[in-house]
Amino acid sequence: MGRYIFQYGNKYSGVAACMSCHGEGALGTTNLPRLAGQYAAYIESQLKLFNQRERTNDNAIMHSIASKMTPLEMAAVAEYLSGK
Fold it and tell me: What is the CATH number of domain 2-82?
C-alpha cells in the first residue's frame, strides 16, 4: 500500500502521489527533501506534524496532503520509504 500511495496517491481521498514532488526514487530535489532511506518512525511523525500544522516549512502543501491521509496510509508510506 505504501508503494502504491507513493507512486499513485489515493484518488478516492484526494491524496496526491508523493512521487510527483519528491521524485521517482524519493531522492528529493534542490527544494524538497530526500525521503528514501529515512527512518519509518521519523517520516510517520513528520506527516502527523504536517497534519496538525506543527511543521512550518511548506506547511500549506504538506498539510493539504497529510490531512487526507489515514494513520494506516501514513505508516505504510513511511515503511515503504524507509526501505528505499
Answer: 1.10.760.10
Q: Report pTM.
A: 0.92
Nearest to 49 by CA among 33, 66, 32: 66
Q: What confidence tens digit (pLDDT) does each residue in 45-61 have? A: 999 999 999 987 777 89
Length of the chain: 84
Contacts of 79 (CB under 8 A, 6+ apart): 2, 40
Cα 50 to Cα 46, 53, 84: the distances in Å are 6, 5, 22
DSSP string, 25-59: TS---SSS---TT--HHHHHHHHHHHHTT---TTH
